[in-house]
Amino acid sequence: MSVQASRFTSTEIPETAVRSSGVSKTHQTGTPKGAWLMVALLFLFMLINFADKAVIGIAAVPIMQELQLSPRQFGLIGSSFFLLFSVSAIVTGFIVNRVQTRWALLTMGLVWALTQFPMLGTVGFATLVACRVALGAGEGPAYPVALHSVYKWFPNELRTLPTAIIAQGAGIGIMVALPLLNWVIVNYSWHWAFGVLGFAGLAWAAAWLVLGREGSLTAATAPTASARAACPASSVTVHPASARVVAMLSVSPWSAGCTVSATTAPVSRSTACSAL
Length: 276
Hints:
Layout: H1 2-5, E1 16-20, E2 23-27, H2 35-58, H3 60-67, H4 71-80, H5 85-95, H6 101-116, H7 125-139, H8 142-150, H9 160-187, H10 190-211, H11 218-221, H12 225-230, H13 233-237, H14 240-275
Helix pairs in contact: 2-8, 2-9, 2-10, 4-7, 5-7, 6-7, 6-8, 6-10, 8-9, 9-10
């Protein structure tokens, strides 16, 4: 027995491969070097993501006044963001199974930036709609792809904290966007509010191009062929739990919109009264 035990080399001790339900898992202690830098970059990614969403609402009044838009027209501009939002998320989900998330995230960051710059010039109703549709297509896959990217850096038991940090980029993005973009609109114009976000998107894309890397845990956590056969994607898609999640997420943008409308209306009235 002692002779057989001595045959194990030291290189086999740090990691132990365990095959469970057809999935090969690797137990590691700690995280790869640079993992938390990726978390920081993806946090900023989500921050810009939600600032891009919020800017159209923050600049609503000056946009409607300058372009002489009716509430119905502006509602179409706002809702056009979601025209390709879900479709893009699904399509990109298949793409990132074959393309490194590093390049998918870089492409999204560039799309976000480039859709903001037309607003620096003279624009009309059609231009605003087209840019918001393109922005929605670029932002639809943002959160799932960001998590897909960071999960390549952290083993299963260590993913909770990085997931929470990236998710908080959304809320903090709105907190940062409201005062900052409002200041830009008041002191410059609504055009520059979009321009600021465009330059922020380009800065993030440049940082990601230089610093962004693909995680090293892909091969260790990839399901085997037998696991894929035992749990095909179609079985997940038609599962009742999936339908409930889709229904819940379909309602959440409506509830968010109602909340924003309910809270901004009193603020608008109070601002108008103070101006008198």
